[in-house]
What does this fold into?
Amino acid sequence: MIDIDYAPAVFAMWIIMVLVCPAIYGLFVVDKYWKKNKEDQAQKNSNVFN
It folds into this structure.
């Protein structure tokens, strides 16, 4: 009976860990890397034409 009471909380934590944590990681860490890499790539491309 106690296990059934905790099941929704465990399921909610699983959803948070699987969906929300990677999304937060993507927003903060990957986005910064993506912007930096994109700027570097744009700089390299402009150097090719000059």
Remarks:
- The chain has one helix and no strands.
